[in-house]
Structure formats: structure tokens, C-alpha cells
Design brief:
Layout lengths: L1 E3 L2 E4 L2 E4 L3 E5 H4 L3 E3 H9 L5 H11 L9 H8 L27 H9 L35 H12 L6 H6 L7 H10 L40 E3 L13 H7 L5 H4 L3 H5 L5 E8 L2 E8 L13 E5 L15 H7 L1 E7 L6 H4 L3 E6 L7 H19 L10
Parallel strand pairs: 6-8, 6-9, 9-10, 10-11
Antiparallel strand pairs: 1-2, 2-3, 4-5, 7-8
Helix pairs in contact: 9-14
Length: 394
């Protein structure tokens, strides 16, 4: 088979390349594919579908869809003797063959030389190669237009713009934190200053109070500058409030709100800024501030907020610097405390927060919740705010 201008030549026969065949699109539910599309697919049957489509678009030839291509190849290769996608038109007769100029005079001469064109004995019958080409469609529907699927893909490719290359991704845009690497290098060289950090944080901590005598335990910190802040809900109905957070995070003991409200010492914590201590071993402590009224925080104070205990209602964040949960929990660790017998509310589950279970009946399991919180906080700080990451003493 040879492509000759607007014709495909099959030995001594030739047919227009836009001749509509009996092999129909969409598993037989659409129009017939043009003859040129089937011939061109055979030439590139070994190509992947993506490469094949690109070649078709480049040569402005309709392509066989991924849905129909395996069926057509199986039929043409002889794997299948018939196909549901091939639907013949019984009224079809092969058109009179003309040259590229379409000379009507030659066509008339050819017709007059055969006085019995309409005689059944001289009608042209399709050979096995012609079974694919069966129905003659109107040419004006095909001229200057690609297959609808090809046109769509061509439109998409014309608007396609490269976004980020793999080189852009590797370069990155954020400043790389080297604090932990610097500490490891200092330890190896014997110059680590971790023992001189009397409040449990690294040398990157702001203010002169970050310096202290090696190995000395800091019982108090008169200058609160630089201490990380933990926010609890400003309510008496939550599981964790200003009245019982100290008992849980310091002593590993969960006190129910009904019991906490009976304690005069716990009541004094309402509205106050609590100082929370975390044992780091060998007499060392890391210190934190706990507040329940975020509206009292200055703009600079929000840079020190490291964790928020979530009540479960979005109105809790109305006085926060980041009032939307999606923004808030990008900057701070969100923690939701709930009983082990209660599910996490759907609203809370949609936020980027961590849930910690409290046993409703077994108080000896409260230590697990305490350690879980500090583990989650350390992981968060190591990535987001390493300057507030507490370091265990060697």
C-alpha cells in the first residue's frame, strides 16, 4: 500500500485517503475512521499511544483512539476474524476512481466504456483488504478538521507551559536550618555548649539569659524573653484548661475538670500565665509558658507560640494571629485531647492536629499521654522551630 497524493494505492486499485471505512469509532458506536487513519496506524503500530498521537498531530492525520486501537490491530493481524466495531452499509458501492485532478471527462469516458455499469456481474466486490474501507462519507465534514479528540489534545498542548523543573525543586527556596548539624559538629570537637544552657534550649535562644554556668540547674527564669508558649482553651468545659494542664504535662496526671474546680490552687491559675517545667535529666529543666487568653499576646509573642490545645470549635481561634485552622496549624502544633471511648469530631479530624487519648478510668495510663505530647512537640519543633527544641542532658 502506497500513499500517492490524496489516494492510497492498493496494487492496481486506489482509493481516496479520506474514504470513511466500516471500522467505527467508540466500539462501533461512532462514525467510521478514514482510510488514511487506519493505514497510518499500521505504520506506527509499535509506538506507544502518546508517541503515536504526537506523530499524528504533527502530520495532521486523525488517530485511532486507545479504546479502538487494540481491537483494530487484533482484526488486521488475524487474531480475530470479526469485530463488533465493523458495521457495513448495505447501500454502499465503491466510488469511481479518478486521478488527483478529479477529471469528470475521464470518469465519463470510463463509464461509457462499460455499457453495463449497473449490471450485477460487473459490480466491484470488496476484497479482504477492502473490508475495513466500506462507507463513503461526505468529504466536506472532513476537510480541514482533525478528529475531535485530536483537536482537544492539540488545544491542551498548545496551552501547556512548564511549571517547575526538577532542577528548580532541588534548589529549593527555604533557608536550610543547620542548628542540629552545628550541635553535632560541636559535640564531636568537644566544644558543645549544651551544658551551659541553663534553661534547656540551644545557644540560638535570644537574650543574655541564654548563658549560664555549666551543669547548673535553673530554678527560676526572671526574664521570660524567648520561652516557648503553649496555649490552652479559655474555658472551663474543655478537657484541658489552665486549671489542669500543669498536672498533666509536669506530673503525668490527668485531673477531671469537676475535681480541678474544687482545688483552690487550680482556681488561682485561671487568667494567669503559668510557668511550666519539663525535666530533661540530671537536674536540668526546660521551661515553657502556658496562657489561656491569646488576646493578651503581643505581636512578637506569637513567634514563640509552639502548641495549641484544641477545644474542637473554630471560634476558639478568633483572637489568634492566624484565625483560620489551615494557617494556624502550619505555624504551631495542634493537639486534641479526648477520652479513649470518644471519637474525634469530624471538624477536628479535618484539621492538621494530633489527637491524644486519655483513659477514662485508668489513671496510671496518664503518663503515656504526657510522654506522647512531649514527643509530638519535639518532632514539630525539630522541623518548624528548632530554636525552641529542648535538649536532653548527656
Amino acid at each position: 500500500v502506497v500513499l500517492d497524493g490524496n489516494f492510497l494505492v492498493f496494487g492496481e486499485r486506489k482509493f481516496r485517503k479520506d474514504l470513511e471505512t466500516a471500522f467505527r469509532k467508540d466500539k462501533g458506536g461512532g462514525q467510521g475512521y478514514p482510510l488514511i487513519a487506519i493505514w497510518f496506524m499500521i505504520q506506527h503500530a509499535d509506538k506507544t499511544q502518546a508517541d503515536y498521537i504526537k506523530i499524528c498531530l504533527k502530520n495532521k492525520i486523525p488517530f485511532i483512539s486507545r479504546l479502538d486501537k487494540p481491537e483494530l490491530i487484533a482484526y488486521l493481524s488475524g487474531e480475530k476474524s470479526s469485530s463488533d466495531s465493523i458495521i457495513f452499509d448495505p447501500s454502499f458501492t465503491l466510488p469511481v476512481q479518478t486521478d488527483d485532478t478529479g477529471s469528470q471527462a475521464e470518469a465519463a469516458s470510463s463509464q461509457s466504456s462499460h455499457s453495463a455499469v449497473a449490471a450485477p456481474s460487473e459490480k466491484v466486490h470488496a476484497t479482504e483488504q477492502d473490508r475495513v474501507g466500506a462507507v463513503d462519507a461526505s468529504k466536506d465534514k472532513k476537510d480541514g478538521a482533525l478528529d475531535s479528540e485530536a483537536a482537544f489534545i492539540q488545544e491542551v498542548l498548545s496551552r501547556e507551559r512548564p511549571g517547575r523543573t526538577r532542577t528548580d525543586v532541588l534548589l529549593g527556596s527555604r533557608k536550610v536550618e543547620t542548628y542540629l548539624l552545628d550541635q553535632i559538629a560541636a559535640i564531636r570537637s568537644g566544644k558543645s555548649s549544651s551544658h551551659g544552657d541553663h534553661n534547656g534550649y540551644g545557644s540560638r535562644k535570644r537574650g543574655a539569659h541564654a548563658q549560664g554556668a555549666a551543669g547548673k540547674r535553673a530554678k527560676t527564669d526572671t526574664s521570660k524573653e524567648g520561652l516557648p508558649i503553649i496555649i490552652v482553651p479559655n474555658t472551663i468545659t474543655g478537657m484541658i484548661t489552665q486549671m489542669n494542664v500543669k498536672a498533666l504535662l509536669e506530673d503525668g496526671k490527668f485531673v477531671k475538670m469537676a475535681d480541678a474546680m474544687k482545688s483552690e490552687e487550680a482556681k488561682k491559675n485561671r487568667g494567669a500565665t503559668l510557668s511550666l517545667s519539663r525535666s530533661m535529666g540530671k537536674g536540668q529543666e526546660a521551661k515553657y509558658e502556658v496562657v489561656e487568653n491569646p488576646s493578651k499576646l503581643a505581636s512578637d509573642d506569637w513567634d514563640r507560640v509552639v502548641a495549641v490545645f484544641v477545644l474542637g470549635q473554630e471560634w476558639q481561634f478568633k483572637d489568634y494571629r492566624w484565625s483560620k485552622p489551615v494557617d494556624l496549624f502550619h505555624h504551631v502544633l495542634g493537639v486534641y485531647i479526648h477520652y479513649d471511648c470518644d471519637p474525634v469530631p469530624a471538624l477536628v479530624a479535618s484539621w492538621n492536629v494530633k489527637s491524644i487519648q486519655i483513659s477514662k478510668n485508668f489513671r496510671h495510663l496518664d503518663q503515656t499521654a504526657k510522654f506522647e505530647f512531649w514527643k509530638l512537640l519535639d518532632r514539630f519543633l525539630a522541623i518548624k522551630k528548632p530554636q525552641f527544641l529542648a535538649k536532653p542532658v548527656e
